[in-house]
Write a structure and sequence with these properties.
Mean pLDDT: 97
Helix content: 40-55%
CATH superfamily: NAD(P)-binding Rossmann-like Domain
Distance between the termini: 32 Å
Oligomer: single chain
Shape: globular
Structural class: alpha/beta
Largest sheet: 7 strands, parallel
Radius of gyration: 17 Å
CATH topology: Rossmann fold
Low-confidence stretches: none
Number of strands: 7
Strand order of the largest sheet: 3-2-1-4-5-6-7
CATH class: Alpha Beta
Bound molecules: acetoacetyl-coenzyme A
């Protein structure tokens, strides 16, 4: 397998950490961004203890100017970004009639606008080198909607609209663009859902349990591999059977 440089945004989070581990395990150089230096340093040490050296660069995915600088810093440290996983994401769950403008914009900025901010500085290099893999980490709730997540569902659905447009524009340049839509995975984000609500959600999952982060990372690695060169514009649902729309 060719060793490449992969950037996983939000790599210090639950699903992000699993993607970083998986891609590093395949021999890639892996980079991620962070906002909080103390949290990032603790995470970097934990990864290093497992033999995974991650290229860490400070940068907020909501800030387009910071993202440009972040990408240039990663390129200087680890080489051009050939694999990009737009994974950074947050929730601000509340019913829409109570939602503030800030709860709306925080979620749309972090989940959707970040795709512009991070992808824009890498796309020209991928096109020039005629190779690239871009994966958006969307959500089951972008596909089916979710009570209390008008902001998140709108942003996550928008991510796949981004995928299918970018896929068309860049297919001739050896760049594939795909979406992975995880269901409810046992991360801090899902564990923050009130227990009684979460239990009702788990009861709707045919496989009968929450997903594991490595089950999502496996799919990302599938899309980013050399052999996935004819798969572009796809949306892969990984949700234990929770939503089977097509
Ligand atoms: N369908 C219909 N009614 C629902 C409902 C649903 N799915 N969920 C809640 N309700 C009802 C309740 O039964 C209650 O009804 P009554 O008032 O008649 O008793 C009412 O809604 C409560 O409404 P409120 O406006 O008072 O809501 P709240 O402030 O108590 O909280 C909530 C609502 C924040 C949405 C809470 O239910 C919640 O956290 N839900 C989970 C949202 C969720 O799934 N988030 C996913 C986070 S993880 C993630 O996003 C990762 C990923 O990609 C999957």
């Amino acid at each position: 397998m060719t060793q490449r440089t992969a950037l996983v945004t939000g790599g210090t989070g639950g699903i992000g950490s699993a993607i970083v581990r998986y891609l590093a395990g395949q021999g890639h150089r892996v980079a991620t961004n962070y906002r909080d230096p103390d949290k990032a340093e603790a995470w970097r040490k934990a990864m290093a203890a497992d033999g995974i050296e991650v290229c860490m660069v400070q940068g907020d995915v909501c800030d387009p100017v910071a993202c440009e600088a972040m990408i240039r810093a990663i390129e200087a440290k680890c080489g051009p970004v050939d694999i990009l996983v737009n994974n950074a994401g947050i929730t601000r769950d509340t019913t829409f009639h109570k939602m503030t403008y800030e709860q709306w914009t925080d979620v749309v900025n972090t989940n959707l606008n970040a795709c512009f901010n991070v992808t824009r500085p890498v796309i020209e290099g991928m096109r020039a080198r005629k190779w690239g893999r871009i994966v958006q980490i969307s959500s089951i709730n972008g596909q089916k909607g979710q009570y209390g997540q008008a902001n998140y569902a709108a942003a996550k659905a928008g991510m796949h609209g981004f995928t299918i447009s970018l896929a068309q524009e860049n297919a001739k340049f050896g760049i594939t663009v795909n979406t992975v839509s995880p269901g409810y995975v046992g991360t801090d984000m899902v564990m923050a859902v009130p227990e009684e609500v979460r239990e009702k959600i788990v009861a709707q999952i045919p496989v009968g349990r929450l997903g594991r982060p490595d089950e999502i990372a496996h799919a990302v690695a599938f899309f980013t591999g050399d052999q996935a060169s004819w798969i572009t514009g796809a949306n892969l649902a990984i949700n234990g059977g929770h939503y089977m729309g097509w």
